[in-house]
Amino acid sequence: MNKQRSPRATPGLPKSPTGITGLDEITGGGLPTGRPTLVCGAAGCGKTMLAVEFLVRGAVEFGEPGVFMMFEENAAELTANVRSLGFDLDQLVQQNKIVLHHVHIERSEIEETGEYDLEGLFIRLGHAIDSIGAKRVVLDTVEALFAGLPNHAILRAELRRLFRWLKNREMTAIITGEKGEGNAITRYGLEEYVADCVITLDHRVTEQISTRRLRVLKYRGSAHGTNEYPFLIGERGFSVLPITSLRLDHAAPAERLSTGIARLDQMLGVQGVFRGSSVLVSGAPGTGKSSIGAQFADAACRRGERALLFAYEESSAQILRNMHSIGMDLAPWVKKGLLQIHASRPALSGLEQHLVAMHDTVRAFRPAVVVVDPISNLTLERSEMEVMPTLMRLIDFLKQQQITSLFTSLTTGGSGTSAPEDSQVGVSSLMDTWLQLRNVEFNGERNRLIYVMKSRGMAHSNQVREFVLSDAGIDLVDVYLGADRVLTGTARVAQAAHERSAAELRREAHERKLRQLAAKRKAIEAQIAALNAEDEAEAAEMIFTVAQESLQATTTQQNSAAMAQLRGGATTATKATKGKR
Amino acid sequence: MTTMTKPKPKTYELRLYVAGQTAKSVAALANLQRICETHLAGHYRIEVIDLTKTPQLAAGDQILALPTLVRRLPEPIKKIIGDLSNEERVLVGLDVQPVKG
What we know:
The complex is a heterodimer of chains A (581) and B (101).
Chain A: H1 2-9, E1 15-16, H2 23-26, E2 31-32, E3 36-41, H3 47-61, E4 66-70, H4 75-83, H5 89-94, E5 98-102, E6 110-112, H6 119-132, E7 136-140, H7 144-148, H8 152-168, E8 172-178, E9 197-206, E10 209-219, E11 228-234, E12 237-240, E13 256-257, H9 262-267, E14 273-274, E15 278-283, H10 289-302, E16 307-311, H11 316-324, H12 331-336, E17 339-343, H13 351-365, E18 369-373, H14 375-378, H15 384-400, E19 404-410, H16 425-428, E20 433-442, E21 445-455, E22 465-470, E23 473-478, E24 480-481, E25 486-487, H17 489-567, H18 572-580
Parallel strand pairs in A: 3-8, 3-9, 4-5, 4-7, 7-8, 15-19, 15-20, 16-17, 16-18, 18-19
Antiparallel strand pairs in A: 1-2, 9-10, 10-11, 11-12, 13-14, 20-21, 21-22, 22-23, 24-25
Helix pairs in contact in A: 13-15, 17-18
Chain B: E1 12-18, H1 23-39, E2 44-50, E3 68-73, E4 78-81, H2 87-94
Parallel strand pairs in B: 1-2
Antiparallel strand pairs in B: 1-3, 3-4
């Protein structure tokens, strides 16, 4: 995408991509098509490598065959030298994609008499170009001719003619040149003839760590990055950094990822961090940064995603063992191929070299999550000026690949007394989410606190949580806010116990009251039942008595009636009354 | 191996590389023939190679400058570049003892 867009930015000047990582971004699409480019630098700075890669990539990736005309090494030496970069020149020569042409001149066997020109060189170059239909040419290092030919006036005139000839033949060419004394770009002033594009290479050693740098000194008719860019000659050839950092156009997915710590996700707008964002975990030694990093990787593996862990402090076996102690078993993920741990010493190479190694690994492994533990070790002995752009490149690269990254960083602040934030200002601005871990020393113990310093694009908690590492894993616990300070560790536990016992007592009191109430209710119910029973008994007796009496009355009446009948019919009523007695 | 006293028994195998019929080419060939006739009569052979016709031959003798005269025999190989206008230097280059006269 970048390669297509870049040439459009400078219309009118056609460019030939070099295929070299980073260089095409800096030059906005490659070297000027059909024109010579001067690549110069001191001995051993990588001129030949750049030229070889330009030709090989041109032949393999862009279908442009090339001629490599060498004046110093011979073809066999060159082939052997670049084989280590994975370029098989023999094969390309057999496929008629590249011609290697060795031009050798031995001054001791040459006598000079009268007029001459370098037409022989032209004929040889022309013949080599025609034999494979070359579009690209490398002359490495044409300055060797100055040692071989005594008449520099003729040589200069002929070189001028050569570069014009290359232009007329529309060859995209690289001409290498040795760096001159002092401020001179090249020893013999080649820049005088090759004026379209000049690239300088440089190899510096600072603090015992070597860094190669590339700069586009001049690019006629085109905008270009003018900075010095670090570059490396690695296993896969030449890489110039920044790889993608000239633009800020990465996508921003809304998808969220869990950090693997539920309570931490809760603090980060409930769902965790955004996919493709960068997370910085900073803290003093022993605050649990690595554990958070490992947990982050573990969570990715649990989701079935690949995770890549760059460790600059511990070996991979040590990480596995240590994480096991907090109940995190990473070994199965490693076995399954979901987790890769790359452990190396930060002092092994320069920051740039680490970065390119990271790039290569990330490209090869294609992880969803990358953990770097810790970046502070990588940036040791480096000024912030140097570190910032390099890290920015790494973060940009990861973002473009939509890889979520977590960086841990050791702060020098130590315990909670000084402000550990200070040492992180430079790096933190690159990060989307910043978690700060802190040690709090109080009540005869040291406890870990975690809080979210910032988290772009989400509502995040402003609360401080206690960060607890146990053999059951990582957990975040609410802290108790005392009168003037937060309570953590045993103080928190004591406070919790205290509150728990108070609650217990209250609960028991309530239960007792409820029990009493129930008992009382039962007693009342019993009383009600007894009264009811009494009432019923009385009622039954009453009915019985009434029945009995009415029966007696009926019987008496019948008796008196019978008697009256027997006595001969007196007034029934009176007799009846009397008879009742 | 060469005896400077008597150069005559050797046969000089000379090859002149040129590019077309340029002024320098023509001059070089004329100069060469004249020098050879004067100093190497009967002991030389000249082969003219026009690289505009056979460019592939340029690499073999590592030809850069034109015209170039290559002394292929006797060994070692020697090269003289230029239009051969300076007879003295040509003779030094060819390691030929000039014939006094």
